[in-house]
Amino acid sequence: MACGLQIKDEDSGYNKNLFCIPKHYEEDIERVFIPHGLILDRTERLARDIMQDMGSHHIVALCVLKGGYKFFADLLDHIKALNQNGDKSVPITVDFVRIKSYCNDSPTQKISIVGEELSALNGKNVLVVEDIIETGRTMKALLSKLKDKEPKMIRVVSLLIKMTNQSPGYRPDYIGFEIPDKFVVGYALDYNEYFRDLNHICILKEKAKEKYKI
Ligand code: IMP
């Protein structure tokens, strides 16, 4: 079974004043939870694991927007480097799907999936690239749509999975980090569209949640 780098409940992250945070978010951030450098180092290893398993056949990398775009770009850069420098290489094509399942820091009832023509998946090895899995509800909804397109194989990589009580036990094939049940932002993860433009994965102050609430 896949496992990620585990961050325990008692690991509260790092003092934000020791990192570069954009001025416009300085007041909003409580702690830096996963620094950008660590995200990239872990992503490099995920790329290697993925290529070892899937690297013998054309891969369609499917980015789950919006939250997955940073991880997707960095993961593909590492995969391209392996393709460039290894003994063998495979073509990678990309596709995008947009899903919205959160409002403020809570899940919404309705999961909307947009941009799902995805006609090129038939018979292909598909790698779904997601930012975070909490209950697994969003991923299960997406996977059931993707299976209709009859791909040869589907693998899921998620940068983060949250260890929550409500988790039905869905685990992706590749996991970056396993984190406690905290709401996190940054590295393209948002709170009502804010904080995607933050390099590190961070924990918000409660008053920031009020400030950006809709
Ligand atoms: P699930 O359906 O419960 O697995 O939730 C997954 C989706 O919820 C992700 O694709 C994110 O959009 C969103 N999400 C869950 N937790 C967080 C978080 O801590 N920060 C930002 N978005 C989150």
From TrEMBL:
One of its GO terms (biological process) is IMP salvage. It catalyses: GMP + diphosphate = guanine + 5-phospho-alpha-D-ribose 1-diphosphate; IMP + diphosphate = hypoxanthine + 5-phospho-alpha-D-ribose 1-diphosphate. InterPro entries: HGPRT (IPR050408), Hxn_phspho_trans (IPR005904), PRTase-like (IPR029057), PRTase_dom (IPR000836). Keywords: Cytoplasm, Glycosyltransferase, Magnesium, Metal-binding, Nucleotide-binding, Purine salvage, Transferase. It is found in: Cytoplasm. SUPFAM superfamilies: PRTase-like. Pathway: Purine metabolism; IMP biosynthesis via salvage pathway; IMP from hypoxanthine: step 1/1. GO terms for molecular function: hypoxanthine phosphoribosyltransferase activity; magnesium ion binding; nucleotide binding. Residues 38-191 form the Phosphoribosyltransferase domain. Its cofactor is Mg(2+). Belongs to the purine/pyrimidine phosphoribosyltransferase family. Homotetramer. Converts guanine to guanosine monophosphate, and hypoxanthine to inosine monophosphate. Transfers the 5-phosphoribosyl group from 5-phosphoribosylpyrophosphate onto the purine. Plays a central role in the generation of purine nucleotides through the purine salvage pathway. This is Hypoxanthine phosphoribosyltransferase. It comes from Gallus gallus. The lineage of its organism: Eukaryota, Metazoa, Chordata, Craniata, Vertebrata.
